[in-house]
Write a structure and sequence with these properties.
Shape: globular
Order of helices and strands: EHHEEEHEH
Oligomer: single chain
Helix content: 25-40%
Number of strands: 5
Radius of gyration: 16 Å
Number of domains: 1
Largest sheet: 5 strands, mixed
Strand order of the largest sheet: 1-2-3-4-5
Length: 153
């Protein structure tokens, strides 16, 4: 079942957030490091208390096994075509719950919500070396729009 997150979900959300972040550290230790556990709690409290972020959770039989954090915004730069964009900030499914359709359900709900508030598109950022996530996003219909490039010095 997918529902809007509540403050009572905080501990489970922090555990999922930590699992997500640890996965990122394994993939890109040159960009990510393991922070103090307070970071997960503080960030998640800020998100749950925010009026701009929406957090949906997938409630499984044993508790939360996935979540997504997103928001909608209007482009405001004078040199950009006016658009309404839904931006996914965090998206994860617990490792032990993957490949069961939970990610698809969460993404479908985000797209439904984005349509209902007249967004033109849904955007997200994914590391190119996170091949499972890239494959999932492509399967969900996402295509590359911009490419972030970096040169190590």
């Amino acid at each position: 079942m997918i529902r809007v997150a509540e403050m009572s979900d905080l501990e489970q959300l922090c555990a999922l957030y930590k699992e997500l972040h640890e996965h990122h550290v394994k993939l890109s230790s040159d960009h990510f490091c393991i922070p103090d556990d307070d970071l997960y709690r503080n960030n998640m409290v800020d998100i749950l208390n925010s009026d701009e972020w929406i957090t949906l959770v997938h409630q499984g039989e044993g508790g939360l096994d996935g979540y997504v954090v997103f928001k909608a915004f209007n482009t405001t730069q004078p040199d950009e075509t006016p658009r309404r964009i839904c931006h996914i900030h965090q998206f994860t499914v617990a490792e032990n719950a993957r490949r069961q359709g939970i990610g698809r359900e969460l993404m479908d709900k985000v797209c439904d919500a984005a349509r209902s508030i007249q967004c033109d598109c849904v955007r997200l950022i994914v590391n190119s070396n996170n091949t499972d996530a890239v494959a999932f996003d492509r399967e969900m219909g996402f295509v590359e729009d911009k490419l972030l490039m970096e040169k190590k010095l």
